[in-house]
Structures are given as structure tokens and as C-alpha cells.
Write a sequence for this structure.
């Protein structure tokens, strides 16, 4: 990925390596917040916001602290800590400074604290040895991909609510089946970039 | 090893320090109760309450925008705990409930066969659904699947039935229904709903000036749920005992059964359930919304004023009725005679309305004892003028001021005051040969009162014919049975008196009917040289009445700003909004329309209450966009009705004539329970275009 141009990175992260449908990370919010379109959109926005920030801060932590001190094996735990702190910080900051944005994203921010999609995206950025700018673009791409999948899925699920689903398959089960089908569809992006 | 340990410690310390600094720097004061309230919520962030998550809902509770029971997933105990934190009664805010507004269901015919997926939304995309009825329920139950609280089920008739206990008013059903049949509403919203062109309502309900849900209360009677029927009527009409007795039931004129058969006797069923409540020994509870602290003055305690006060009180406002006479009721107390509406019954009914917490200030007349400025000074937020129509029109002929000549309302009022007084005063004069001029209900009330007072000869002189008489047909028939003479096509021209100034003879011209006039009735034309006379010793003119607006000249504000029409009614730009030319003054009933029916005044009072509610809660006062008002929905009015098997209408029980003309005992009696059940089964349970056929 590190040889790709910025545009290819974004396309690759949104479609080919979609964090939800290709990497299957972040399934919890994928099923949890996709019941209503409203919440799905809110969640998508919050993820874009947090993931770009997290991508930046984890890159700095990794390249300026972990690598020089030869502590690369602490990557996962360090990232978790940093992301959690970051999200809490952002929440506090928004509440005071941009209440409008807080009112929109407020309740989704705590949900992202422990979102594996965010951690996963950051880890992938590091593994792919992307430069700082490129990892920003990749983070943004992953976040948009997350949002796209989530909104698509919310649209489908809103319709599923009205369908006659057999009892054992209702709600989460039919959700997972549907997610699988959408993931299959996203497979066709393979090899595009 | 140590590096790693120190690194993690350092990183943790850094993050902690940063967050603690941030929490100081970015500190926003938050009511500590929000956290406490949130603690009692189910913490599922389910969004069922309509807020984005539990903390938003908790904030809304603390801000007073949501009731303590907002959390749909928490139990009653949690609601009580939240209420305790807030220091309020858990039930104070009005509960929102879901209502199904279509009762057609499967009986509506289909336009085409539909075999695709079982979803209303899918079906609605094909020509708006398969039913003939454009606005009816599609019956696949999208709302049922959307309800996460199991409060909805598809009933046997093919439309959803709401379980009020399980419903939390989340609105999922309303959002999902493609036909807008499911509505979530508070009681206040329900009380204020006016009939609209896109409502699913039967012709009777469209026609009723008070807009009572007639098919619903009849179906409740059918099930034996008399309390439910009373409550249904009370959503639109607080004077059911009175209306059950005196209403000329315009609804029955539009009854679908009436097209092929005799109309359902709707009003007798209303009277049956109303009497049932009165005789049950208890008053059925009437819920009111939490107090809003707004004050409204209702001037005039007649049907319009009582109705307006009743609805405003139920919406949570503080209401004071100011009335010019000692007791409430207005024209239904002092105009309608005892034998049609016993005053004991009226008093019971009015007490029930006052018991809601309405203050009554008697013997205060607008323009004499107070004016609108003094009301506003006393802190009232709005004023309702329901002053009625108490001023008789004059005949305008020579000699009408001779001794023995009276006007209708004057006569009835004076007599009623005497009859309801302590008996200290002398009985008003009653003649032996009495003539009443006019063809309306006031004229009939006068003659029937005179008969009971022992007048030997009582007759009505009317310038048109029986067919054109505006009085209720039952009243005219009852008067005939009681021995009243009718002289039709006679226009009084002169009252002739003797030397002492007593009226002795009435001269009139005979008439014939000519071309129809503006009212659609054929205009009477005098026949030249046909003067005749009748001997009289008492003459009562009851040719109509209008509001007395003398108070207007007593106040500078009203004289300048309050517009009245040329019929002396208070001018409201819109007959539905009923707001006068002074924004905080509203009107309704006879003072807005001129002399009309009791039930119209009740409807007017409710419409005015709606406008007053909008005015004092800061909304713009406008009628709903698609108000039906006095119109009918064209598709609902049929030329002929299929599937009707004729069945006799329940006769109204009456006192025998020779018995009733001797006293003022109530002449019309109530039907029995069996008769009410029989009559309720004659109802076709119509909705907009569908109905239950007698023969399948």
C-alpha cells in the first residue's frame, strides 16, 4: 500500500479493504448501531472524526516513541490506551468548545473508545509502513468505508424490520447473514487497485 | 523490561494527566441530577424514547421536557425513582399513546389482487394499496412488526389494535405506516383535533357540530362498555345529559342507514349512557393535563362557555367562568323549559364540569360589573366571550308594545327565573288566549310552556308552512299532540288594543309561497286584501334573537377595537379559529353565529378552546389546513346503500299527553338498556366509505 498514490489509498481503503466487510473488524457497532438510519449516520460521522485523529496520534506514538525505544511489542496495548484517552479527551473538548457537534456525535464517542475497527485501522497503517500523510489518508479511507458499509447496512435493516423473518433468524441473526451477503458483494472490488 | 514498564507507566500517567487537565479546562456545568437520572435508566441507549441515548433522555427529564417515565425499557420503579429525584409526581407529564384511526380493515373492498410480499410499505407503492378506500388500513401490519414493545396486534377485523398498557408512545408505528393511520398523541392533542378532509370518519361524525366519534361510542354501547361510551362522548361534548335531551341530532340526517331505512337513533343512545352515568351513583373520572399556570376568563356560562371552560381545564389551564345570572347553564337553564331539560339534571352535569377545578363567579355582567381591561389587569391570559344571543328581534308592527305583548326569550327567562327562584315573587302573567308568532324552537318552547301553565287556547302563527318551520320536528309533533293550533302562511300586520292598552286582537295577512329565497325556503308572498284577525289576550313574538353587545360601548378598548357584524355577532375572521379582532379575545356559540343549536355552541366552545390554547402557549392561531368544519367528505356521502335489512327505529318513550300538559315533569323519557342494545346493533359502524352490511 505504501507505493500507492493518495487517491489509490483512499479507494483501496473504502472498497477493496473495507474495514467492516473485507477485514470484518468493528462488528459490534456494525450490528449495534445499524438499526436506524439516523444512528448509523451519526456513528459514521463520529468514526470518521475519531479515526483520522487516532491514525495521526498512533503514527506519532509508534514512530517517535515505540521504535526509538525498541518497544514495538507494546504496540497494541499502547494504542488501546492512547485511543481511549484520545476519545475521552475529544469528548470533553467538543462538549465545551463545539456543543453543536457534541450534540450530534456525543453518544457515539464513548462507543468508539473500544472499537476494534479504529485500533485495527491504526495497526494496518503501521504494518503497511505508510508515511504520516499516507496514513492520514488511509485512516480517512477506512473511516469512510466503515461509514459507507454501516449506512448501506442500516438501509437494508430498516427494510428487514418489515419483512416476515422466521423466528430463529430474527434481528442479529438475519443481520449477520445479510452482512455476509454484502461482504460477498464487496469481494468483487478485489484486484481493482 | 524496565523500559517497557516505565514507558507504559509514563504513557498512562501522561494520558491520565492530560484527561484530568482537560476535565478542568473543558469543564461544563452539568446538573448533577442528570447523572442520577441516567443511573435509573436501562442504559441500553436503545433510542426507544426518541432521544439519542440515555444521557440525552436524562438531560431532557432534568430540563422538564420529558416525563419521568420516558425510559421505555425501565420499569415503573425506575420511573418512580426518577420522579423522586425530580421532586414530581411520576404521572404528571401527559402520556403519549398510539391510536389507530381506521376501523375499516378487511371490510373495505379490494381493487386488485396482490400476491407480492406482505408489507404495507410495498403494497402502498402500487397505486397506494389494493383497497378501494384511499385512506384505509392496508392490513399487513408493518406497524405490528415495527413495535418493539408488543403493544400492537392485528385484530380480527384486519386493522391494528393498540394495547394501551404496553404502548409507550415511541412512534415507531406512526413512522412506518404508509397510510398515516397510526398516530401517537397525548390526550390534549386528541381533545383538540378538529375533523379534517383526510380523516377516516363516518358521515354522522362529520355532520355532528361537536364532532363526536359516534360509531365508536355506539360500538362501546354494543359491548356494554357504557363508561367507555361516556368517555368517548366527553372527548368532544361535556354536556351529554343536556344534549341527549334537547339535541335535534343533525347527525341522524346523514346516517347511512337512514338512506334506505329509518336512521339510527343516535341521540337516544347518547341520552341512555348519559343517564346511566347519572343514575350509577358515581361520576366517571375525567383526566386533566398537568397544570400550565395560564389563566383564562370565560365570560358567559352557557353551553359555549361551559364547553370552552371544560376543554381548557382538561388542557391544564386555570379557568374562571363569569356569568351574569346566579346559576350556570345560560340559555339551556333559562331558555329551555323544565319539561325538556330538568334543571336537577342540568345542575348535576354542570357540577361535574366545575369539579374539574373550574371557578364560577356568578352575578357578574360584562359591561356592568367588569370589563375586558379589568380582566387583563387581573392577570388573565385570554378571554372567551360566550355571551349568547339573548336579545329578541322585534316584529316591527304597530301595537306590539301593548300590554300582554311579550318577546320569546324574555317570557321564557322570566318564567324560568320565577320557577327556579324561591317562589317569593309573583308568577309572570299568563293569558288564556295566547298567540305565539314564529316557527323556531323558542316559539314551540313558549307554546308548550303556556299549555302547561293552563292557557285555554294556544296557537302558533307562522308566515310559512309546517315544512319550512326551523323547529325540531319532534318538538312540533309534541306541540300538536298537546293541542296547539297552527296558523300557517300568516304574517302579522297589527296588534289591536282596547281603551286600557291591552292587546285584544292580532291582525294578519294571509300569504302564499313564492320563489325560493337565499335560505332555500320558498318566500312567502302576501295575498292582497286577505286581512284577518284572531282574538288574543297574550302575544309572544319569537321570531329570532341575536347577541346583546351593549357592553361594547361601556369600554373604550372594545368600542374601538372589537369588531361586530351587522347581526351583532362578534366578528371572528375565521369561523374555526374564532379569534376576534382583539387577539386575546375569542368567541364561540350564539355570540359568534347568532342563535343556533346547543351542540353547535359546544363545538364552538371546543374550537375556541383550541385557539386559546394555541394563543397562550405561544403558537400561531390558525385553523388546521384541511378543516372539514360544516362540510362533508364527498366520497363518504352515498346515494344508496346496499345490504340493508329494514328494522324499526326505537321509539322515544314519552309521558302520556294528558299527564304531561298538567306539569313540568320531563316529557321525553329515556330508552331501556335492551332498547339501547337493539339500537346499537342497527348502527352500521360506518367508516369513511365502508360499513357493516346487515346481509352479507
Amino acid at each position: 500500500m505504501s507505493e500507492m498514490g493518495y487517491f489509490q489509498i483512499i479507494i483501496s481503503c473504502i472498497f477493496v479493504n473495507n474495514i467492516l466487510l473485507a477485514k470484518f473488524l468493528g462488528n459490534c457497532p456494525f450490528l449495534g448501531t445499524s438499526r436506524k438510519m439516523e444512528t448509523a449516520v451519526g456513528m459514521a460521522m463520529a468514526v470518521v472524526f475519531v479515526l483520522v485523529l487516532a491514525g495521526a496520534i498512533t503514527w506519532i506514538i509508534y514512530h517517535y516513541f515505540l521504535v526509538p525505544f525498541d518497544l514495538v511489542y507494546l504496540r497494541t496495548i499502547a494504542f488501546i490506551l492512547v485511543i481511549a484517552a484520545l476519545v475521552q479527551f475529544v469528548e470533553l473538548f467538543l462538549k465545551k468548545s463545539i456543543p453543536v457537534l457534541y450534540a450530534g456525535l456525543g453518544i457515539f464517542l464513548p462507543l468508539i473508545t473500544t472499537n476494534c475497527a479504529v485500533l485495527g485501522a491504526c495497526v494496518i497503517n503501521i504494518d503497511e509502513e505508510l508515511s504520516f500523510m499516507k496514513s492520514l489518508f488511509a485512516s480517512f479511507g477506512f473511516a469512510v468505508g466503515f461509514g459507507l458499509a454501516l449506512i448501506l447496512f442500516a438501509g437494508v435493516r430498516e427494510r428487514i424490520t418489515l419483512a416476515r423473518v422466521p423466528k430463529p433468524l430474527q434481528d442479529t441473526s438475519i443481520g449477520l447473514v445479510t452482512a455476509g451477503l454484502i461482504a460477498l458483494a464487496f469481494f468483487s472490488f478485489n484486484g481493482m487497485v | 523490561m524496565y523500559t517497557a514498564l516505565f514507558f507504559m507507566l509514563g504513557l498512562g500517567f501522561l494520558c491520565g494527566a492530560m484527561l484530568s487537565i482537560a476535565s478542568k479546562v473543558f469543564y461544563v456545568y452539568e446538573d448533577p441530577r442528570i447523572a442520577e437520572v441516567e443511573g435509573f435508566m436501562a442504559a441500553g441507549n436503545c433510542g426507544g424514547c426518541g432521544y439519542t441515548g440515555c444521557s440525552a433522555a436524562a438531560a431532557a427529564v432534568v430540563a422538564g421536557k420529558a416525563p419521568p417515565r420516558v425510559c421505555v425499557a425501565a420499569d415503573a420503579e425506575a420511573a418512580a425513582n426518577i420522579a423522586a429525584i425530580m421532586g414530581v409526581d411520576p404521572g404528571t407529564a401527559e402520556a403519549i399513546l398510539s391510536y389507530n384511526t381506521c376501523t375499516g380493515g378487511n371490510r373495505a373492498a379490494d381493487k386488485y389482487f396482490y400476491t407480492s410480499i406482505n408489507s404495507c410499505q410495498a403494497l402502498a407503492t402500487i397505486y397506494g394499496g389494493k383497497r378501494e378506500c384511499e385512506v384505509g388500513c392496508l392490513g399487513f401490519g408493518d406497524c405490528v412488526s415495527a413495535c418493539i414493545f408488543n403493544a400492537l396486534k392485528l385484530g380480527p377485523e384486519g386493522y391494528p389494535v393498540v394495547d394501551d398498557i404496553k404502548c409507550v408512545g415511541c412512534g415507531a408505528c406512526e413512522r412506518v405506516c404508509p397510510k398515516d393511520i397510526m398516530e401517537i398523541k397525548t390526550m390534549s392533542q386528541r381533545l383538540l383535533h378538529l375533523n379534517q378532509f383526510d380523516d377516516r370518519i363516518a358521515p354522522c361524525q362529520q355532520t355532528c357540530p361537536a364532532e363526536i366519534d359516534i360509531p365508536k361510542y355506539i360500538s362501546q354501547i354494543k359491548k356494554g362498555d357504557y363508561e367507555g361510551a361516556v368517555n368517548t362522548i366527553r372527548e368532544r361534548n361535556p354536556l351529554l345529559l343536556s344534549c341527549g335531551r334537547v339535541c335535534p341530532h343533525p347527525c341522524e340526517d346523514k346516517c347511512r342507514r337512514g338512506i334506505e331505512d329509518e336512521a339510527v337513533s343516535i341521540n337516544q343512545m347518547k341520552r341512555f349512557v348519559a343517564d346511566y352515568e347519572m343514575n350509577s351513583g358515581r361520576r366517571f373520572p375525567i383526566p386533566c393535563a398537568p397544570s400550565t399556570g395560564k389563566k383564562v376568563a370565560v365570560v358567559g356560562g352557557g353551553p359555549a362557555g361551559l364547553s370552552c371552560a371544560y376543554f381548557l381545564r382538561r388542557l391544564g389551564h386555570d379557568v374562571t367562568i363569569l356569568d351574569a345570572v346566579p346559576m350556570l347553564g345560560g340559555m339551556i337553564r333559562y331558555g329551555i323549559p323544565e319539561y325538556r331539560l330538568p334543571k336537577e339534571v342540568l345542575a348535576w352535569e354542570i357540577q361535574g364540569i366545575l369539579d374539574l377545578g373550574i371557578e364560577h363567579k356568578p352575578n357578574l355582567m360584562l359591561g356592568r360589573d367588569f370589563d375586558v381591561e379589568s380582566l387583563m389587569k387581573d392577570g388573565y391570559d385570554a378571554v372567551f366571550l360566550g355571551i349568547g344571543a339573548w336579545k329578541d328581534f322585534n316584529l316591527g308592527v304597530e301595537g306590539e308594545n301593548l300590554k300582554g305583548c311579550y318577546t320569546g326569550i324574555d317570557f321564557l327567562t322570566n318564567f324560568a327565573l320565577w320557577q327556579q327562584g324561591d317562589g317569593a315573587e309573583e308568577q309572570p302573567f299568563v293569558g288564556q288566549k295566547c298567540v305565539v308568532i314564529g316557527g323556531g324552537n323558542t316559539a314551540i318552547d313558549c307554546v308548550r310552556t303556556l299549555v302547561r301553565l293552563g292557557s285555554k287556547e294556544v296557537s302558533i302563527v307562522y308566515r310559512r308552512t309546517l315544512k319550512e318551520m326551523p323547529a325540531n320536528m319532534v318538538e312540533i309533533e309534541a306541540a300538536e299532540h298537546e293541542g296547539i293550533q297552527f296558523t300557517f302562511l300568516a304574517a302579522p300586520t297589527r296588534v289591536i288594543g282596547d281603551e286600557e292598552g291591552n292587546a285584544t286582537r292580532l291582525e294578519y295577512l294571509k300569504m302564499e309561497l313564492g320563489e325560493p329565497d337565499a335560505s332555500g325556503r320558498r318566500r312567502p308572498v302576501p295575498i292582497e286584501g286577505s286581512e284577518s284577525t284572531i282574538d288574543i289576550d297574550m302575544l309572544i313574538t319569537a321570531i329570532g334573537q341575536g347577541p346583546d353587545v351593549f357592553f361594547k360601548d361601556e369600554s373604550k378598548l372594545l368600542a374601538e377595537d372589537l369588531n361586530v357584524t351587522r347581526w351583532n355577532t362578534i366578528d371572528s375572521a375565521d369561523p374555526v379559529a374564532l379569534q376576534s379582532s382583539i387577539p386575546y379575545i375569542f368567541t364561540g356559540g350564539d355570540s359568534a353565529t347568532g342563535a343556533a343549536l346547543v351542540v353547535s355552541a359546544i363545538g364552538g366552545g371546543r374550537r375556541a378552546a383550541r385557539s386559546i390554547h394555541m394563543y397562550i402557549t405561544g403558537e400561531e392561531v390558525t385553523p388546521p389546513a384541511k378543516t372539514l368544519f360544516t362540510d362533508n367528505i364527498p366520497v363518504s356521502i352515498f346515494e344508496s346503500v346496499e345490504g340493508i335489512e329494514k328494522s324499526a327505529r326505537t321509539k322515544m318513550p314519552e309521558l302520556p299527553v294528558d299527564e304531561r300538559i298538567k306539569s313540568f315533569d320531563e316529557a321525553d323519557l329515556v330508552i331501556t338498556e335492551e332498547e339501547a342494545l337493539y339500537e346499537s346493533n342497527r348502527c352500521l359502524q360506518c367508516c369513511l366509505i365502508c360499513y357493516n352490511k346487515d346481509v352479507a
